[in-house]
Amino acid sequence: MGIFIYIVVLLFSVIMHEFAHGYAAYLRGDDTAKHAGRLTFNPVPHIELFGSIILPAALVLIQAPVLFGWAKPVPVNGAKFKNPKVDIPLVSIAGPAANILIAVVSGIGIRIIHMMPSFEQGFGGSISSVLYIMVIVNVVLLVINLIPIPPLDGSKVITLFLPQDIAVKYIRLNPFLCMITLIVLLWSGILWQVLGPVISILTVIVSGVPLR
Q: Cβ–Cβ contacts within 10 Å for residue 127, how many?
């Protein structure tokens, strides 16, 4: 049951992540995601076979230290942005911003439940456990998505600080090879050694509960 809850929370979180990208793009003048039917909370248009199903299932099977995945990226047309140099990083940061918002709201819920011991000892304990999973999953998504390698959001955010010619070349790095490298590092545990302390600290700050 715990694994099922983790996967459901992950799907919800990556869908909200992509919705945030699409909505931010819409606010900045790009209606591509809207016309593609992606500004919706219906999970079906957002699910991507590998990132939403195969990869999370594989990480569960190999007992990887983190559960990670993604939804189908929303289509974005930078030519429609009001100010592409600023708007592309802004739209990119919207996804991680959605994740930290979900984590913070979940953390507040945990703290409120902790203030009601009698409720926490009963049904509130189950709610708190689900909220804690929400915190962990969304903190992990936040941290990993901010890694500055294509096609992760961090790679687009960092272009705001790069000269345009270098930014264009950087963003065009082969995303497939980059993601394979990321998956290998996640599977090996090497990346967890670097990101684990960051995720642990953020989890405590957000929820008040140490990483289990």
A: 16
Q: What is the pLDDT of residues 34-58, one digit of tens each?
A: 999 999 988 889 988 888 888 888 7
| Annotated active-site residue in 6, 11, 13, 18 | 18
- Indicate the helix (H) or strand (E) that contains 178: helix 175-188
The Cβ of residue 100 has, within 10 Å, a number of other Cβ atoms equal to: 16
Per-residue pLDDT tens digits for 20-30: 999 999 999 99
For the segment 52-75, what is each residue's pLDDT rounded down to a tens digit? Answer: 888 888 777 777 666 778 888 899
Q: Which residue has the tokens 């687009």?
A: 156
CB atoms within 10 A of CB 74: 26
Mark whether 120 is an active-site residue: no
Angle made by CA atoms 17, 36, 103, in degrees to the nearest 5: 10
